[in-house]
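[Discussion] Sanity-checking designs against the backbone

I'm trying to build intuition for which residues belong where. Below is a structure token string of 217 positions. I'd appreciate it if someone posts a full sequence so I can compare it with mine line by line.
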């Protein structure tokens, strides 16, 4: 998905007169996303005694697998000659597109998610030897951490004759992030920050379980 960052991102960075910088992946864009939702109802035995124990069971699950959201590498620069301090980082030219993120297992990159050698501060253009121009990196050039989670539910429905036929009692257990896999949030994407490329939180809570009781009449 490509979109002007004014509409698709929370903040417009860099040269607002540059079509190249103002066009790219929106901040909410995920290149791949797969969601599977399923419910399996176990067949109920015909014999009443067996049905009391084995009937009325159902099992459900929601699996979500998705790539990371689009990130823009920012650069807070008070030396910009145009007076726009909220800029983008400059590309060093040392890295090919797709190499802006460090390699290896995600857990090993929590403190260095980005390949820092790919980015630098914008070039000096002022006659005073201090003022800089705009950084040349575009919007949404990298992706945040991918996510994969599984939610499960198990329920048992017991038919009742009280207060009238058709009444039932349902016991339901639900587990969110059932496999308890950490789902890491986006890293700090501001190049001038001392925590640039550091992931400090998760986007999904650890495993959560809950039990509910439902009486239908």
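Best answer:
Here's mine. Compare freely.
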């Amino acid at each position: 998905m490509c979109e002007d960052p004014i509409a698709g991102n929370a903040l417009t960075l860099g040269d607002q007169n540059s079509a190249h910088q103002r066009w790219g992946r929106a901040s909410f864009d995920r290149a791949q996303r797969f969601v599977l939702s399923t419910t399996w109802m176990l067949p109920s035995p015909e014999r009443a005694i067996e049905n009391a124990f084995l009937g009325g069971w159902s099992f459900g699950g929601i699996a979500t697998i998705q790539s990371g959201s689009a990130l823009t590498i920012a650069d807070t620069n008070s030396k910009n000659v145009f007076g726009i301090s909220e800029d983008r980082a400059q590309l060093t030219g040392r890295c090919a597109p797709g190499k802006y993120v460090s390699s290896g297992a995600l857990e090993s990159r929590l403190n260095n998610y980005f390949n820092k050698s790919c980015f630098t501060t914008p070039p000096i253009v002022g006659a005073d030897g201090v003022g800089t121009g705009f950084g040349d990196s575009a919007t949404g050039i990298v992706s945040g951490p991918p996510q994969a989670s599984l939610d499960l539910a198990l329920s048992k429905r017991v038919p009742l004759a009280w207060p009238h036929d058709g009444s039932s009692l349902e016991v339901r257990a639900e587990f969110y992030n059932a496999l308890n896999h950490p789902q890491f949030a986006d890293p700090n994407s501001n190049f001038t920050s001392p925590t640039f490329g550091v992931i400090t939180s998760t986007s999904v809570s650890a495993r959560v379980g809950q039990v509910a009781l439902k009486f239908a009449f």
